[in-house]
Amino acid sequence: MSVELIWALITGAALFGVGIYGALSQTNLVMIMMGVELILAGALINLVAFWRYLHPDVAAGQMFVLIVMTVMALEMAVGFGVAIARFRSKGSVEMEEAAELKE
Amino acid sequence: MANDLALMLPEIIVLLTAIAALVAEMLRQPRVAFFVSITGLAVATMLTLPLLGEQATAFSDTFRIDTLSIWAKLILLPATILSLLLVRAELGGSAREGTAYVLIIMITLASLIMAGAGDTMLLVLGILLAGLGSFALVAYPRTDAATEAAMKYFVFASVTAGVMIFGLTYWFGGTGSTLLSELVILEKSPALAAIGFIAVVIGLGYKAALVPFHFWAPDAYEGAPVSIAAYLSVIPKVGAIFALAQVVRDLPVESAWQWIIAAVAVLSMTYGYLAALGQQNVVRLLAYSSVAQAGYFLLGVIAVGSSPLAFESLIVFSAAYAAMNLGAFAIVMQVGRTLEAFKNTGRQFPMIGVAMVVFLISLAGIPPLAGFVGKFLLFGAAMEAGFTWLVVIAIINSVLSLAVYLRIVVPMYQPSENEVITTDTVTIPLVRQVWFAGLLLTVLIGLAAQFLLGSIS
Amino acid sequence: MITAQAIFIGFFGVAAVWFGIVVFRTFSMVRSAIALLFSQTALGAMFLTMQAEFLGVLQIMMMATEMSIMAFFMVMFMMDPGGMGKMEMTHQKRLSWIVGLVSFTGAVAIAVFIDWGPVATTVAETAQQTEALGLELLGRSMLVFEMAGVTILTAMIAATSVAIPPIPSPEKIHKDKV
Amino acid sequence: MISISLVILAPLLAAIVILCLRKRAYVLALSSAVISLLGSLGLLFGPGVELILPGLPNMPLRLVATPLTSVLSTMVAVVSTLVLVYATGYMSQDKEKNRFFATLLLFIAAMQMLVLAGDWILLLSAWELIGLSSYLLIGFWYQKPGVKAAAMRAFLVTRSADLGLYIAVFLLIASAGSSDIAATLNTDGTVAIVAGLFLLIAAMGKSAQTPLHDWLQRAMAGPTPVSALLHSATLVAAGAILLIRTAPMLPPETLVVIGIVGGITALITGLIALGESDLKRLLAASTSSQYGLMLLAVGAGVPLAALLHLIAHAAIKSSLFLGAGVFQHSRGSTALKDLAGVARDQPRIFIGFVIAALALAGIPPLSGFFSKDAIIAATMTSSHAWLFVPLVLIGTVLTGAYMARALRILWQGNAQKKTLAGLHWMSAGVAGLVILLIVLGALFPTIEAFVAAPLPGNMLAVGLGLSAALSGLLLGWFVPVRSLMGPLLEKANQGFSIAGGFDNLCVRPVFAIAHACEKLERRLYTAVLAVGKTGVKIAHAIRSSDEQGIDRFIFSIVHRTIRLGRQARALQSGLIHRELAITVIVTAGLFVITAIGLLIY
Amino acid sequence: MLPIVSLTLFLPLLGAIVIMCHRNAAAEKVHKIGIITSALTLLGAIWMWVRGVADPDMAGKGFAQVEQIDWMPSIGAAYRVGVDGISLPLVLLTALLFLLTLIYSSKVRKQPQAFVVLMLILETAAIGTFTALDAILFYVFFEVSLVSMYFMIAGWGHEDRQRAAQMFFIYTLLGSLPLLLAILGLYLGGETHTFDMRVWIENPPLEGGAAMLALIAMLFTFAVKTPVFPFHTWLPAAHVQAPAAGSVILAGVMLKFGTYGLIRFALQMTPEAFREAGVVVLIFGVVAALYGAFAALAQTDLKRLIAYTSVNHMGYVIVGVAIAALTLDPEIRAIALDGSVLQMVSHGLVTGALFFLVGMLQDRAQTREMDQFGGLLKTVPLLGWSFVLAAFASLGLPGLAHFPAEFQIFLATLREEPWAVIVILGIVITAGLYLKAISQVFLGASNEKWKTMPDLDRRELLTLGPLLFFIIVLGIAPSWVLDVVHQTTIALAF
Q: Which of B126, D10, D304, D444 is deepest in the core (most CB within 10 A)?
């Protein structure tokens, strides 16, 4: 067992926890997106740590990191697109105000 | 490599179709985009046929050309064509209608990729791609409802995708590979396998609208145009379910993955129908029904590896589901979104009445229609896998489902107080073609299920 | 045994987490965005520490761009640009806090209790790594790579189509005239 | 072969033809009766025949003509022919006479079938069919008040008792493995005792034995020829015939019971007859009483004596009834007080009536004398003579008494002259029967020889019987009934009903059960619900559904489900963070399930 | 060889399609097509009858006239139809009843097209249920009949039809799904995965606890369908609300699905388990028979009364089947089953006739309450006497249809489980209730209100005539049916 791996994984776990907290507690769409970014950051650090300390010769690990980065970027991009559309129609991206569709 | 490309030809054609449609849209030729899309998808379907019976992988095992993925193409591509007809009927003439076609084809591509995914990265990308297109489609009308639906959809999607990716990293840590086929290694650490699998269930469960990841679905379907809702309730869902089947194929049993699937199945079936029971809005009702139907799909997933019926049942039921659900939505498009609108339609328009009744009782699983054959196979598969109790719950839910679907049937044949003929219910040719095709398929799949079964095995 | 690497990892890790927490503790979105940027940069630094130089650099560069875009948007969508009013932007804090803590604990438990097997002590040189990644990209993961490309294309279309202002449909114009 | 089918088919076909043609009913009826009579005579003088017809698998239907059955068949044919002759006159004014004749012919066919049946299934069928036709005949004037109740009563009582026959038949078939009556007569042991007792129940029902005697008197609501035919010679006879035919198989234990039942009936219904105030009802009670005597004979182990009395009684009681019918036509009533002096209106008929009454009482040289003698002699040979002989003698005294009383009342009074339509037909019928009852006595030795069964002769019996009959007649003629019966009169008029009789003992409990079932139907699931009534919600669900019974249960489940659905929908708050929170919590549940699963594996 | 079974089976469906193609045909024409189709179907059934059930290859055992087409060979499901002595009489009965019902209903003017189409679909489903030799096919037809009946009640029923229809549907669907489970169990339990019922009958695939579970599932289904106390409450509700035609089909044909299934599935496919549970089933049968009789006695509504007597009569069938399951003696088994099958046929004829009669009465008087009538025998003699005849047949009078059947059932019962013969009390109670009904409705003084009530017309006579004829024929000479039944029942061995 290596201290580095554990520490890195704990960092990932902490980022994940913070991200989850953010995603659940924020009222603003953009802030929720930040929470998601943090969750994905946790995933990134996990992946890199696993690659480095367990499977350094597997390039797929790095590849996965790239994919996760892509996911982060694309979600941001489309997220902002949706935010703009929402802003145009409603003037706000507050989630609490988005409760027209319900039972 | 060339062989890989040949194996993936249908997907490539789909991609090219999307690009061609995009070009046509950019040239402000939505009609052309539409016809290009239809033609391209039809060609892709044709090109899938020679692959039947193939058992191979492409691109170093990252993509599987097997029964599931081939049949995903054969089911989802025609279903997409039908959806496109519906979309054309509803959104035709609006600005940037071609974008909708492009996005739809892209989502279909994503669903196909998911259904054949052999690599966790492809799974992630498939979910992402399907999601990205869906938000835009749901937000298409730009009304308050549509943007709200898109926003909720987006939040749900991004959070669940994040959790899923985070969980999947552990699989990489455990196996040292992103390939699904390497999951067998996890036999020694089932806890790790289980944790990763829950993450996958979260991601795919959201896509397939399984309880408890379904919350976006009713809102999104209600906010979106009906045709888009019809599309979203079928194609990405089937893709996600197939992806789940691909995942569990290599998952060691010790990870208790069957338990998770069973739990989610029970929740989905029961909650879906319970929630549908009180709906006044037919689209919402069908949304919840699609949640429940996703639960039924899991009966096939649970049997993967322990019953030869598993794949057959999944395929037959998804074909049936596609036919009847698209048909039902098509009729909703024609009649209206509320139960009020359905009053007396059965008497005024006998054909629409008959068609809707057929779709609904097929959804409820009454023979000899497609839904019955599908569910029957699913039940058989689950029983063979030793999940008789699950089948019992499914059967009890079938009774519940009947009550749900009768909620639509009953007003259709109830004489309304004022026998005014609602003139706004005009037959839209494209929609009529769709529900007619759905009707035909629903009946045919029920009667000639062997055609499917024979080709599957 | 605590190595220099471990110390750096620990340091940058704490930094990343700290800035991550700060994201949700400020009352201005701009500040949140900047905190997130720092957090991600710390993460990039961790990558560098873990000898994934290509990824580290990529992370820092990408996040810098991304966060600056985010900052623009902050300004656009912020109700209180300066964050002076200390307005509340959270709800169900207690539950979120518990869930966050439980997730953290769970993930830590996984990290600690799972037997991860033997640890590799050395990795390939940076250049070889990058080469291997390139081969992976155009070899085994070709399809994944291509899919990522398609996804980016779709994201562009999707983002554009939702973001551009709605054009009234020809029918609508016609109707309005009538 | 031909004659055996003629006997049954002739009346049956005639009935159908009458229903189709709807005219010339009496011609057809009479001719078919004659054909039937010829057929049975053919059987009587021809060789024994057995006709096997397809029936149930391995259980074919059989018609047999043994000496016993052909004698009975002849008796039925003769009596029915004469009754038909009478009915031609009696019914000449009735609009519905087609239906009458058709039903009557159906009845005759069924009776012949019963008599000639060679297997249990056919016997059972015939048994039930005569029940049906008697129902139809008793209820012939169905629009009159009281008639439908009488018909219903007759059918229900006999049918209830028929269960005994059903069970006896099942027992016999089960033990013998065949439905052939001849084959089952070898049964012995417990089965024979039990089956015998069940047969007795059936016979008690049909032959109106105590305590099932009540229906017969009520059945007098039907037309008189019906009474004459059904309630003297045929329908009631079925019970006795059944026992006579199965006598070879009946073990002593059963015979005692049969004898006791017969004796008690003879006593009780004799008393009822004595106290009766209606001529037809008197005759009906007398019928029960006479059949009681026959059962005594069977119980004493000499079925032939019973057979002889059966035959004699058939002729006697038919002529009595037919006479009563003429009186009824004459006075428009059958109550004895209305009939006082009617003898002077119809002297010729009255002569016949007197002869028949004397015959019934057992005055030589009429047939009744011989048959009653045979019964007394039979009981004296029985091992239970100490019980049976007094019973027979009392029965005989009572017979004499009530007949004498009736004769006296009919004789004393004033004449009311009135011409009657169809009187000559009626007279012909009565005359035929009276002649028959006179000459029958002479034929008895022939019958004895024919059936080839010894009959115990006993001079003491002759003396006892004769003195009993004479003392009965004298008592009846000279002593007023009130002083003769004393406190028993009241009871007799109520039909000696114990604890409310048939109505209270059977009908009410059955209806009570029925209503209880109906109530249960309504309450059943209310109760089920009450068990599960855990909260106000469910109680509300019950209240809100106004439907009763099980439906309520079903619908309350539906309501509960819908309520559950509403609660489920409430989860869908539209607020994404709440929904996400639910997702998280449920996912945590998934983790728990997984943990359990992992531990188990 | 002409595929007569399939032709007969699908002829009504063809007729339905023909009618659907004539979208604007007049009501008369629609009815004419319906009647012609069902008449041809009856001819087909008669042809089947003439061919008989003796299969030369099987030495009288098993099924005859088998027709088979692959349907889903990969899961062992095929289109297999055929008949044996148990199903053939029921097919004939079905064809006859449908023809008569269509004749009777030729006056229907409320959406005649849909009505006739529904009837014809129902006919195919009913014949299919009886002839199917494939479990899936059986289930398919079983359910289709359910759906069509639902629409029949909901569309053409009386006052409270929606509720009754819903009740009927929920109840019987809830009932039929366990059968699906049992079918799957049998399918998976066998060595070769097939849905061929003949294989299952030849070698019962399940044993022990699994067989018992499957049996319980099947018993539940068939108990609801038959119906057995306490699952019977849908029956009176459905009958009272259903149109006369629906009632006739429901009672005459569809109730037999339950008992037919009981023989075909429960008895033949899980015989050992059934033997173990036989006493319980027997008790249920006895209770149902007595309860039905008593409950009928308390009714004031004529239609409800007849509906409850169905519970009684079907209770006898259950008793017969239970006895057949319990006994080890093939002779007793044959007697019990002969009786049960014949009872099904005669119940179809008799109850059919009774429901027709009540329908006719209701058409005339718009009420079914018995105390509203009185003395009708005088006013409408034909109707009255027909009712009397049918009622006496129903109460089990010899010479009429029910007697030979009930006789055999009781005989077998006494030979196997003597205590159960208390069920025979039922025949007295039914006698009582029918006499009560007859005397209330038809006897006594005529009610002024109905003085002008018309007697049966030609259409009605044409409907009733054949039924009454067969009631008598079956009572006098049951052997022409029993011989066919017996061929099969005597060969049963388990």
A: B126
